[in-house]
């Protein structure tokens, strides 16, 4: 019973780490990546569709992303979606494809992105703590229903705390790595 609770807690905490990494991928670092436009949805015949599902999205160099739609009629729609996404650049439409030119980041922009990364990691820590609370409640419930002893409950709560500490430190390591990546010029 306790092992099930531990496994459940660990798998949910691991999902929080994976979600944090996905969030971090949308942040800009010194070199642009196509993940910056991953969250942009285009109105494709009435259906919100991911940008990479309606055309080729490639990073042509360290500061440029090129988007080539599969249908030329989508150019203005894609251009509008990028402007509304407010990613810090204006799209350049030349009739065949759209280019996004990202200027080099200033130190203020880097600091602002670090703040965003810290907020994202704080959300992940909160999610992990919520998982800890749910797991602790499950252990306490088992003890209350006399399925485990009080000593087993205390050992269970200690074990859950160790798992939580491990995943909180993983969040901090992930943040440190991302922060170094963002601040690297």
How is this structure best summarized?
This protein has helices at residues 2-25, 75-85, 107-144, 150-183, and strands at 41-44, 47-50, 55-61, 64-69, 91-93, 98-101. The protein has 185 residues and is of the alpha+beta class.
- Total domains: 2
Major β-sheet profile: 4 strands, antiparallel
pLDDT < 50 stretches: none
The CATH topology label of the largest domain is Topoisomerase I, Chain A, domain 4
How many helices? The count is 4
Number of strands: 6
Which structural class best describes the helix and strand composition? alpha+beta
Shape: elongated
Question: What is the CATH level 1 assignment of the largest domain?
Answer: Mainly Alpha
Percent strand: 15-25%
Provide key terms for this protein.
single chain; 185 residues; Topoisomerase I, Chain A, domain 4; Gyrase A, domain 2; two-stranded antiparallel sheet; 58% helix
Can you characterise this structure?
The structure is a single chain. With 185 residues, the protein is α+β, with helices and mostly antiparallel strands. The chain has two domains: 2-26 and 106-183, Ribosome-recycling factor (Topoisomerase I, Chain A, domain 4, Orthogonal Bundle); 34-101, Gyrase A, domain 2, CATH 3.30.1360. The chain has four helices and six strands, in the order αββββαββαα. The protein has helices at 2-25, 75-85, 107-144, 150-183; strands at residues 41-44, 47-50, 55-61, 64-69, 91-93, 98-101. A four-stranded antiparallel β-sheet has the order 3-4-6-5, covered by helices on one side. A hairpin with a 4-residue loop joins β5 and β6. α1 (2-25) runs antiparallel to α3 (107-144). The longest helix has 38 residues, at 107-144. It is elongated, with a radius of gyration of 22 Å. It starts with a helix and ends with a helix. The model has no long low-confidence stretch (mean pLDDT 91).
């Amino acid at each position: 019973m306790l092992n099930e609770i531990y496994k459940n807690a660990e798998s949910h905490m691991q999902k929080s780490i994976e979600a944090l990494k996905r969030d971090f991928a949308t942040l800009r670092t010194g070199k642009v990546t196509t993940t910056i436009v991953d969250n942009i949805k285009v109105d494709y015949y009435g259906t919100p569709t991911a940008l990479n599902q309606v055309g080729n999205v490639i990073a042509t160099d360290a500061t440029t992303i090129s988007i080539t739609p599969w249908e030329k009629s989508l150019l203005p729609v894609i251009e509008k979606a990028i402007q509304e996404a407010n990613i810090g650049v204006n799209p350049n439409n030349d009739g065949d494809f759209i280019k996004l030119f990202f200027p080099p980041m200033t130190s203020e922009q880097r600091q602002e992105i670090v703040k965003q990364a810290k907020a994202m990691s704080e959300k992940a820590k909160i999610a992990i703590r919520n998982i800890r609370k749910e797991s602790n409640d499950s252990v306490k419930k088992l003890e209350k229903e006399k399925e485990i002893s009080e000593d087993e409950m205390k050992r269970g709560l200690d074990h859950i705390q160790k798992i939580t500490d491990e995943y909180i430190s993983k969040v901090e390591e992930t943040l440190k790595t991302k922060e170094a990546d963002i601040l690297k010029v």
